[in-house]
Here is the input.
Amino acid sequence: MRSAIRGATAALLVLTVAGAWRPLGQPLSIGAESTLQFDGKSTVRDWSCKATAIEGVIDASGTDVVAGVLAGQKAVKGATLTFPAAKLDCDNGTMNKHMLNALNASKHAAITFALTDYDLTAAAPVTGTLRGVLTINGIAKPVTIPSTFEAAPSGALRVTGTYVLNMTDWDVEPPKLMLGTLKVRDSVTVAFNLLLQH
Here is the structure.
């Protein structure tokens, strides 16, 4: 009898603890409306490529991460974004081929950004600086990106920003098309509009 009582008491205790337990953090995911594009120039015309797939792992703490960030709190603890090279699209089959060759995509299948730290203001809109490691063509380099954080529909967080890079800093040779008459400039402007949601 005593054994049965002890068993029932233990079961009740487990259920009570399980009912009271809540996850400490609410991970964020990348919304389908998120965009990232690369804009550049050439000797003939301007060009633009976009990421048709964005994968992300975002670690966060607290029960309302979005509200925390919008209040200037560092509620996001870390993030890694991945952009598969095969999913980059320049709306031109020839340009796509040259871009994949330049990125050495057969060996390095993705571009990644790993967040290492960031700063936020408590203003509206919230602005800040993202610091992390950008890996292109298998080469990892530290970058600093000014960004803006705003509330988005359905309780999401919108993060926007631009960053200018030189392809050759990552050993990417700017493509040449039309027998070399079209030469892509080294400088590229990366613009992102990310929708982070629970």
